[in-house]
Amino acid sequence: MPTRAGRPQGSPKGQTPQANELAALVRELTGSATVRELAELYPASKTSWSNYRSGAKIITAELLEQLLQDRVPDAPGRERWRQRANALLGAALAAERGQPPPASTPRDALTHAVRAQRQAEADLRESAKLVHVLRDIITRLQAETPPAGSTVGRPAAEAPHHNPAEPVPPQAGALSQATEQLARAQEIQTAAQVAHARAHQEQERYQQQAQDTSSTGADQAPTPGELVPARPDADGEIAVLLVQVRAALEGQHWELSRLNDRLGWSGEGSAAGQRVVRGELIGASDNPFTSTKVPSGRAARAVRRWRTRWVVLATVCAVLAGAAGTTVALHTRDTSTVVSDGKHPATTAPPALPTASASSPPPSPQPATPAGTVPPAGSQSAPPADQHSEEVQRAPALSVTAKDELYVLRSDHSSVWRWSGDGQEWAQIGGPASAVYAGLAGTFATHPDTGKIYKFQGAREWIPIGEAGAAFALSGEHLYRLAPDHSAVFVWSGQGTSWTRIGGPTRNIYAGGAGLFATNPDTGSIFHYTGQGDTWTEVGGPGATFAVGDRHLYGLSLDRSAVFMWSSEGTSWTRIGGAAKTIYAGGAGLFATNPDTGDLFSYHDAADTWSKIGGHGGTFAVSDHHLYSLNPDQATVYQWDGQDTHWTALGGGPGA
Prior knowledge:
By secondary structure, this protein is α+β, with helices and mostly antiparallel strands. Helices cover about 30% and strands about 20% of the residues. The relative contact order is 0.11. Residues about 1-5, about 145-170, about 220-235, about 265-310 and about 320-390 have low confidence and may be disordered.
């Protein structure tokens, strides 16, 4: 092996054996790379990398995940490495705090699970408080923003230009920022729920075993090999997830403080003035989020990295759920394994959706750009935000049935509203909710605190029909639910609270007139539900996102450089458009937003033929005949007239 520049790696310098074991794994992953090379590739200094490899500092979960993604190319092997890495990281963090090493007896495991559950409960309380605070902030911002003449989120054809000479009010953009932060806080709340559920599961797992061994005295002096050791990987992975949740919560506190500074609020009701009681902190070395001061410099950069790398926490969530072969677990699987746990022969996973070159024409105001000409301004392929992950699905605030029954949440999520479909009338039909779903199967909403789903019965009456889910989707007369830990897909029976499991571990679900589709949590490949038992058919590789129309499934390539349409047979896809930020589909057609300008385009059922129909809007929903837009402050809903850039405001909207 050729000699590399740089000083040779010395002996381990960790304060605990667990830290040294983690350092050995880091050295194994980084191989012969020098600290200079690592500092150029990853967001950490040469000194930090030297400390990570010696054990003097504990590597962050984010950096560890980046190493795994870059240096272990095959998915099954990476999953095995990930389980080992997270177990070692959790043990090192626990040892750093003076906690006992990973449990070797049921009694130790029970103690660890109880401690983790208490931490998760504190995180749940704090995340719930954050959600409440952010909703209050959004309500105040909405009240302080003059509704008259407001054009936020309107189609571009109606939006006047801002006079640069006029001062920009501090509220400008703050409402959108607060809304985005609310979505992140809700995601953190979901992660805390996963940690809490898993810790509770571990507690139940070892409760009886601890009692049995205590009564026989075996727990005090076990014979080697007599007892099955408690799983250190479960201990470590729960600890890692809790550290990630804690880091995310601290990042949210910093952003609240920054929002308060931007608005100049002070005293009661200010963003920073809202009191959030923090739970016990599970610390981590080199963790910029654990400080109660507003971070700056490197810490501020770390907060920004967190905002664009939520996938790290989602990955730890998936690994955590996958550690055990239980009914709520995400089982590790080969890349060819299907979503439905292999009820049909495995197939070789196809390549990702084809990626178009940077010169490929995106959705544009004209038909496909002729060869050799320059595409329209702002239509070049956008650099990917993350080329290795499918985007996180947001809880919908706007939903419409095929027959134009339109439902909207107020911006503060305090109530559900329905458009009469006639004139300017909106009617309140429900109270607080976190999401609303509508389709042939009915109208549904999720509880803002518990996440449980309810069905609208009419006359403002709602009945509970099921537990919380990571996502819900409607196709025809069916309502589907993805388990909170992404371990299974369920379909509602249509009666009471009865649900049937129809699929195994899943990353996201997509549904519409063309059916139900789900993505594999390991490979990202997409599968189509056959409608029989738990049998699924693979139809394509991974994508940044997917949309289901009345007759077709559409996909956006991982780097968002091209839009594709599934042929409805096998794994054959056709490229129909260039770069896009996201896509929407329904009976009224396929729509895409430009990655640079945010402008909205409509597809004309011919490859690379798109028309601009509007400017930037907040949220879109598609019925059989119309496209609807809910502006970012969720105060006004617009209906596209179906021609050019003509839109009609549907009254003042539920937020007016």
